[in-house]
Amino acid sequence: MASELDNAKLKEAASILQKAKAAVAFTGAGISVASGIPDFRSPGGLWTKYDPFEVASAHALEHNPRKVWEFLLDTVDLLERSQPNPAHFALADLEKGGQLAGVITQNIDNLHQRAGSSLVIEYHGNFQRFYCQNCFMNLPEQEVLTQCSQSIPVWCPSCGGLVRPDVVFFGEAIPTRAQQESIQLLKAADVLIITGTSGEVAPANVLPRQVKLSGGKIIEVNLGNTYYADITDVRFDAPAEQVLPRLADMVCDQ
Ligand code: ZN
Q: For 194-210, how does the pLDDT look when each residue is reduced to its tens digit (9 = 90+)?
């Protein structure tokens, strides 16, 4: 419960944020669980229903596009039913209040943008954008959804190539632009809020360490054990949707 949060710790984190020249948030799947999107890897997540190699890899796109699109329809359905939660709104409020420079997210759910965050760097793309993997033409989401309600897979109206979501599939590289933009943002960052990501895999195990190494402070909001114990300055073992709104209120009210 929010009332059980450690007030002294909240004050300490708020004070760090208030003194920051450029604070950045780094988010992962955990921040969207309260929005009704289970972590793909957790029980009830999409990877308990699908084999990622068969539905979300370059190999699958080439060899079984229909199966990829069956999975995409399920995912679109899940994302359409989700809403930003208080944690997403709190980060948007911090940005509007001039207390947060931007968000770097590993999520593809578009919930930061829907909550009102304007600078959002998407490490793994965004499920609401689609393009043709042959001619690279972008296709409006609505057009794609209309098409896939009639038949799947969806083919490009211009060249007949396969249409795919603008997300990073297994075996694919992180978009260069996202990498460069996050490096730029983190170069200037003197505080990093890590939330919803445990630091087990890249980029989550790399980016926060860069901020710490250059003398920045780390505020962590994560449930359970993570790989950040050695770099965290203030840590909340509590859900983001409870901690971040309290923190945003304290910081923005000053
Ligand atoms: Zn095309």
A: 999 999 888 888 999 99
Both tokens of 235, joined, read 């840590």
* pLDDT computed for residue 254 by the predictor: 62
Confidence of residue 2 (pLDDT cuts 50, 70, 90): very low
Residues 6+ apart with CB under 8 A from 206: none
Cα of 138 to ligand 1 centre, how many Å? 9
Residue 149 C-alpha to ligand 1 middle, in angstroms?
A: 19
- The highest-level CATH class for domain 1-37+84-124+173-254 is alpha beta
**Cα→Cα distances 83→13, 40, 48, 112, 193, Å:** 27, 17, 23, 10, 22
Q: Is 63 a catalytic residue?
A: no
pLDDT tens digits along 148-189:
888 999 999 999 999 999 999 988 999 999 999 999 999 999
* Ranges of CATH 3.40.50.1220 domains, the chain: 1-37+84-124+173-254
- 38-81+130-167: which CATH topology? SIR2/SIRT2 'Small Domain' (3.30.1600)
- Out of 63, 88, 112, 124, pick the active-site residue: 124
If you measure from the C-alpha of residue 153 to the centroid of ligand 1, how many angstroms do you get, rounded to a whole number? 13
